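Researcher: Sequence recovery benchmark, item below. Answer with residues only.
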């Protein structure tokens, strides 16, 4: 399960799913006036993760025409097998007798050519109508909601979300609307919402095929990321989703102009007004966080590809970003810039959760200026009497940046609801240097 920080980015266990994909795209358009025809689209994990991120990007992969498809080369075993950046890619033979087998085979071959090697096992793509698809997406959801509940406590204390917001129910409803497809790393199931392979469904299939391909070669099941107290889980998710979105975009670019127009029309008709209302019920903070794994992950993977090709992209799966800062600022990833370790604040109460909030969450909470100056942090959420509280200690890149963070935090502290019991901001010198310490508490 992948999330960041500790429950703020929520995905579905073991799934590389189009979690909140179309939700995020439509929300971003509604909130920011973005032309959908110019934004990328999404689908994919856990998280979650899955990936905000819901996504304002489109999963892209290109079908290969017979006249553009590379001539299969003789494949050999072991170390002689074609790999990334190797032009000699032997395409997988297409099984006969399966529904939509010709189209699926073209999409499989596109992914193989894009990633520079064949699938180890030809993937099975399942199409499911809405009701059955929702059942499969939500299978086991009620057994794995602890992260959502912890995230709710953390965010309610800072009043980033409403005090009575039930994240479990909000996410359950949004998953039924927003998931377009998923790849399960445990069962290797690749399932897409839809009953026919129109161009939009094909774009989702391409995105999920990239996950399946990456899982076969690079292993997307990373249980060691389940309980991390930094942001390496989010960094891995950004590589996973960014790579799938990169190949999906390539597929879209390979379409004719008429086909791209048809695809955009299909995208624009995906959500009913009622479904959009479900989307808008999710807190903006969480949607922005979900989107990032797709949009910022895409920018990061594209830069990695430009600097080192498919081999460098593969290497990023084994050495993913360790902070959201490295995702938001790809040069920080390439330069291996690490956040400053910040000691946890000692609190007087029962600790519910602790970890790193991260630049992405600071940005989505206090604004981009405050986020860009982030140098490291630690948070603790806890119960104190009848209060739920969260305390953060934040360091910055420069003294000026720390002042920006302090100013934004003071603006936040000047607000509050009738349930607010504390909003405090102070500068404290610690072993990590000067920090801005922020505490928010509400009546539990």
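Model:
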């Amino acid at each position: 399960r992948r999330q960041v920080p500790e429950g703020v980015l929520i995905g579905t266990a073991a799934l590389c799913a189009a979690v909140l994909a179309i939700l995020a795209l439509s929300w971003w358009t509604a909130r920011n006036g973005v032309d959908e025809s110019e934004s990328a689209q999404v689908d994919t994990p856990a998280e979650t993760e899955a990936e905000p991120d819901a996504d304002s990007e489109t999963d892209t992969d290109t079908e290969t025409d017979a006249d553009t498809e590379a001539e299969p080369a003789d494949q050999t075993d072991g170390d002689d097998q074609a790999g990334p950046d190797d032009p000699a890619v032997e395409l997988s033979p297409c099984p006969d007798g399966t529904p939509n087998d010709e189209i699926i085979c073209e999409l499989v071959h596109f992914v193989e050519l894009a990633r520079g090697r064949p699938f180890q096992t030809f993937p099975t793509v399942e199409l499911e109508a809405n009701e059955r698809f929702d059942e499969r997406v939500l299978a086991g959801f009620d057994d794995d909601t602890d992260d959502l509940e912890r995230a709710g406590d953390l965010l309610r204390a800072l009043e980033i979300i409403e005090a009575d917001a039930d994240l479990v129910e909000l996410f359950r409803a949004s998953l039924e609307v927003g998931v377009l497809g998923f790849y399960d790393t445990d069962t290797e199931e690749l399932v897409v919402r839809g009953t026919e392979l129109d161009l939009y469904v094909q774009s989702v299939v391409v995105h999920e095929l990239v996950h399946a391909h990456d899982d076969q070669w690079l292993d997307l099941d990373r249980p060691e990321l389940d309980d991390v107290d930094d942001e390496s889980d989010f960094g891995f998710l950004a590589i996973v989703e960014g790579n799938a979105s990169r190949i999906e975009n390539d597929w879209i670019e390979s379409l004719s102009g008429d086909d791209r127009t048809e695809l955009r029309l299909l995208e624009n008709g995906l959500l009913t007004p009622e479904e959009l209302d479900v989307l808008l019920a999710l807190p903006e903070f969480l949607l922005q966080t979900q989107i990032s794994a797709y949009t910022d992950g895409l920018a990061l993977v594209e830069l990695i590809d430009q600097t080192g090709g498919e081999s460098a992209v593969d290497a990023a799966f084994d050495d993913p970003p360790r902070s959201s800062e490295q995702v938001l600022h790809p040069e920080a990833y390439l330069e291996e810039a690490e956040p400053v370790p910040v000691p946890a604040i000692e609190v007087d109460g029962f600790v519910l959760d602790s970890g790193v909030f991260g630049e992405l969450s600071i940005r989505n909470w206090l604004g981009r200026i405050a986020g860009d100056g982030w140098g490291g942090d630690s948070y603790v959420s806890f119960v104190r009497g009848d209060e739920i509280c969260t305390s953060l200690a934040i360091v910055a890149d420069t003294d000026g940046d720390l002042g920006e963070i302090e100013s934004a935090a003071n603006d936040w502290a000047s607000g509050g609801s009738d349930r607010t019991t504390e909003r405090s901001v102070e500068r404290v010198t610690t072993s990590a240097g000067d920090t801005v310490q922020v505490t928010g508490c509400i009546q539990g």
